[in-house]
Amino acid sequence: MDIKAIVSLDRTECAVQCNSKKRILEIISDIAAQDNTSIDQVTVLNSLLSRERMGSTGIGNGIALPHGRLAGLEHVMAIIVTCIPAINFDALDEKPVDIFFALLVPEEQTEGHLQTLATVAGKLSDKDTVKAIRRAKTNEDIVSALGM
């Protein structure tokens, strides 16, 4: 999957103030529900929280990939949020997280979900991309850092 197909400026937020794992997931859920009327904030939040209960999606290096599958969602969508300060997210490396690249996938797309996660993880393994995201001052800067 081409990352450009799932990223949108409308679902990108730079430098939000946040202090907890639950609050950042609420912010991500709010953004998703505002952008897509076929899903609601509570459903998105429950999906993300359910996934986090299975194990943190904090992959290390200050990055988390929260994700969930949703009934009623027609297309894969990404929500990208950076936060200040970085927060405890129970990441694999136990370091705080400041870059959140959330993925919401239609419930029936199990295989596509895994491929999309792999594509995003690959993009975020590029040190220059991550540095550019951290330097971002605007939502447009974040989208630009991702090569859009």
From TrEMBL:
<dbReference type="InterPro" id="IPR002178">
    <property type="entry name" value="PTS_EIIA_type-2_dom"/>
</dbReference>
<protein>
    <submittedName>
        <fullName>PTS IIA-like nitrogen regulatory protein PtsN</fullName>
    </submittedName>
</protein>
<dbReference type="InterPro" id="IPR051541">
    <property type="entry name" value="PTS_SugarTrans_NitroReg"/>
</dbReference>
<dbReference type="Pfam" id="PF00359">
    <property type="entry name" value="PTS_EIIA_2"/>
</dbReference>
<dbReference type="InterPro" id="IPR006320">
    <property type="entry name" value="PTS_Nitro_regul"/>
</dbReference>
<feature type="domain" description="PTS EIIA type-2">
    <location>
        <begin position="5"/>
        <end position="148"/>
    </location>
</feature>
<dbReference type="GO" id="GO:0009401">
    <property type="term" value="P:phosphoenolpyruvate-dependent sugar phosphotransferase system"/>
</dbReference>
<dbReference type="GO" id="GO:0008982">
    <property type="term" value="F:protein-N(PI)-phosphohistidine-sugar phosphotransferase activity"/>
</dbReference>
<dbReference type="InterPro" id="IPR016152">
    <property type="entry name" value="PTrfase/Anion_transptr"/>
</dbReference>
<dbReference type="GO" id="GO:0030295">
    <property type="term" value="F:protein kinase activator activity"/>
</dbReference>
